[in-house]
Amino acid sequence: MRGGRAMSAPVRKVIHVDMDAFYASVEQRDDPSLRGRPVVVAWKGLRSVVCAASYEARVFGIRSAMPAVRAERLCPDAVFVPPDFARYKEVSRQIRAIFARHTALVEPLSLDEAYLDVTVPLSGLASATDIAKSIRAEIRETTRLTASAGVAPNKFVAKIASDHRKPDGLFVVPPSKVEAFLAPLPVGRLPGVGRVTQGELEAMGLRTVIDLREAGREALIERFGRWGRRLHELSWGIDEHPVEPERPHTQISSEDTLENDLALDALAPHIARMAERTWAAWLRQRERDAHEGRPARRPRTVVLKLKTSDFRILTRSLTPARMPGDAAALAALAVSLRERVALPASTRYRLIGVGLANLHEPGPQVDLFEPAHDA
């Protein structure tokens, strides 16, 4: 056993496929005038954020989730294109169909990336590397887009590897090379290590993965508890999480960033607007369940999400005896959840969201969407 790992554990073959600047690349593919230019997929406006940036735009420091106004300052010549998610979803369906020809074990992370377990492939190709090459070639031929891929014995190493030769790259980390591959990487590359944890680790003198490894499990557990044990495992390349095929959503929600920060008392019409969107999304989900032969699922819980002007996120939820029967009733419940927000009246809010959570298959005794009957 090395680093707490049982060396006899079965070795998986995992591929992480990540489309290159996906939304922006779709726009450049479909509009030749955008090719070679810095493209930013975002609505313009003070409250908008960047959905994607082409590699030409990234040269200027533009990144996803950046405020659009900052992106415009960084590159005044950038071409702003409003997102077209219906088109991106259609391309994503084409890509997932390619994955399905090689394995049934596909775990989508978003429209543009996924894990694939090809330990027992459907395509009969000799190796995971050959499968990754084939997938990338099929994506290019079918969509005229490029994808990068990482091949490794587990998910987190495969994800790091896929970023190693972007764009349009393939990087393979065989089991015997995992420890050497990880050793020089900064601790911030490990999954779950955000800015705060990275700062704490660096304050301990632990800047690279090999530093983390050499610190020892007990020291990390003493400092970080159970998370310290996980950090130690990651430093040795240990990740036993399986690739999990996509499961039906357990929550349906809609959210929006307001044009201006508003007080809590002024949010009702905006909450009602999000409730209408969420209700419509739930009806579409119900239709998809029926079309795909799944039992109709019902939500148990109404959720209100708020983000304050200083980016603090609040959620309040309610599980009523009976769920609402229409969008207006959902809106009334969501609006009522404001009463559970115990912040000063001076607080202003920049984002609101309404969700239906805990979707489940109702038992024979209760249908939460059927009206009550008098005895």
Automatic annotation (TrEMBL):
Main enzyme class: transferase
Catalytic reaction equation(s): DNA(n) + a 2'-deoxyribonucleoside 5'-triphosphate = DNA(n+1) + diphosphate
Keywords: Cytoplasm, DNA damage, DNA repair, DNA replication, DNA-binding, DNA-directed DNA polymerase, Magnesium, Metal-binding, Mutator protein, Nucleotidyltransferase, Transferase
Site (Substrate discrimination): 23
Residue ranges constituting the UmuC domain according to the UniProt record: 14-194
Pfam families: IMS, IMS_C, IMS_HHH
Co-factor binding details: Binds 2 magnesium ions per subunit.
Enzyme Commission code(s) on record: 2.7.7.7
Cofactor(s) essential for the protein: Mg(2+)
Highest taxon, organism lineage: Bacteria
Active site residues according to the UniProt entry: 113
UniProt keyword Metal-binding present: yes
Compartment(s) of residence: Cytoplasm
Binding site for Mg(2+): 18, 112
Assigned protein family: Belongs to the DNA polymerase type-Y family.
Function according to Swiss-Prot or TrEMBL: Poorly processive, error-prone DNA polymerase involved in untargeted mutagenesis. Copies undamaged DNA at stalled replication forks, which arise in vivo from mismatched or misaligned primer ends. These misaligned primers can be extended by PolIV. Exhibits no 3'-5' exonuclease (proofreading) activity. May be involved in translesional synthesis, in conjunction with the beta clamp from PolIII.
Xref: NCBIfam families: PRK02406.1 (NF002677)
Protein name: DNA polymerase IV
